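Quick illustration, no need to memorize.
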Amino acid sequence: MLTSTTLPVAAALAAAAVLSSAASAAVAAEPGFGGSTTATRTPPAVVSPVAAGAGVAVEVRQVGSTSSGGSFERSSTMVVPRACWYGRGPTGAVYFETWRPGGLVESGGWSPSADQYVDPTLHANFEAYASVEGNWFEATCRADAPVSYRTAYYAAHPGIYVEPGDPVPVVEVGVDPAVLAQAARDAMDLPVGTIAWNPSMAGSGATVVGVETWVWVQDAPTTVSVRAQVGGTWAQVDATLSGMEVSAPGADPVHCTDTGTPWSPDAAGTTCAIRFSRSSADQPIVEGQVLPTTTLTLTASWAASWTSSLDDTVTPMDTQPITTTAQIPVAELQTLVTQG
């Protein structure tokens, strides 16, 4: 029998009770072990022209599998910082006076304070625009953009002079693949798993002191691939559940190599079990519960790496453990011994 999160417990957990070996208690995991299971359309590629705005729209698609053999997918859009872009620069006259022989740079009248942002290569034939109305549009990069990426972007995007009435250059925004990989990781939205355990007392869902308690997560996400894409450039993060730590007051913590084995009468054994040394009778009654419970904490670890359309090298990526909790009643059975 599978019961819900709110588990009524017998008035005194120390009272004798009959174990129902076929029963297990399930507690809905809080958001953190996962998120939505909504599946949406496959996203189109998005190219955002550069002229304004501090970010670029990125299309994200994720697919994954669960411990029960199911699958999930989700599509979304997010905004990430631009690494490089074309921006409006100085007029022809200002640029000429700055960079001409004997100009402000050579004479010491102007010192670039942001040379890491702007390509120091002089614009071709800039002298010809000294008296022409208009502005230079220049490649510009964030200070934290990788040097190799900035260098390549500058080389591929020389300065363009735009006179009044001329169209502003429309060029695909440059987004560092590492930024896309970070966006893919941040966009992970995993389905919610359900914490379950056995034994559980009929009617209360309580486990028992001194008995090996099987713990598992039903429909837990175990693998996921997330791709973030802008135009033809993408980065993909592939992650796999690498283990789960289970802990609770009154029990030694255990490390499980997976999300546990669902209990069944013919199950040979489990990959995840915890043993309680004391009951939860002295614990406070938490909101949503009827009688005292112990907090069961599950912390899932993930191993992740990423690749991109520009480099197929598999690069390890740090991930944050995902923790969720459930309230579990723990009973202590009393055995009455009589002499005849």
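Residues 1-53, 113-119 have pLDDT under 50 and may be disordered.
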